[in-house]
């Protein structure tokens, strides 16, 4: 092992112990198991909708006023 930490090293070790607490490690990922897949699917949907709207957008000839 390395040399002893001394009082300063022990102080910082104790200050960083909260980072290893089981309640803080990866909890959001376990709480929302399908969120990543859902966000990817929603992003694909949004891109697909934009492509659809550009391809099948009504042309300007459909918006002309017609006299009876």
From TrEMBL:
<dbReference type="GO" id="GO:0045271">
    <property type="term" value="C:respiratory chain complex I"/>
</dbReference>
<keyword id="KW-0812">Transmembrane</keyword>
<feature type="transmembrane region" description="Helical">
    <location>
        <begin position="30"/>
        <end position="48"/>
    </location>
</feature>
<keyword id="KW-0999">Mitochondrion inner membrane</keyword>
<protein>
    <submittedName>
        <fullName>NADH dehydrogenase (Ubiquinone)s</fullName>
    </submittedName>
</protein>
<dbReference type="InterPro" id="IPR012576">
    <property type="entry name" value="NDUFB3"/>
</dbReference>
<keyword id="KW-0679">Respiratory chain</keyword>
<dbReference type="GO" id="GO:0022900">
    <property type="term" value="P:electron transport chain"/>
</dbReference>
<keyword id="KW-0472">Membrane</keyword>
<dbReference type="GO" id="GO:0005743">
    <property type="term" value="C:mitochondrial inner membrane"/>
</dbReference>
<keyword id="KW-0496">Mitochondrion</keyword>
<keyword id="KW-0249">Electron transport</keyword>
<comment type="function">
    <text>Accessory subunit of the mitochondrial membrane respiratory chain NADH dehydrogenase (Complex I), that is believed not to be involved in catalysis. Complex I functions in the transfer of electrons from NADH to the respiratory chain. The immediate electron acceptor for the enzyme is believed to be ubiquinone.</text>
</comment>
<keyword id="KW-0813">Transport</keyword>
<keyword id="KW-1133">Transmembrane helix</keyword>
<dbReference type="Pfam" id="PF08122">
    <property type="entry name" value="NDUF_B12"/>
</dbReference>
<comment type="similarity">
    <text>Belongs to the complex I NDUFB3 subunit family.</text>
</comment>
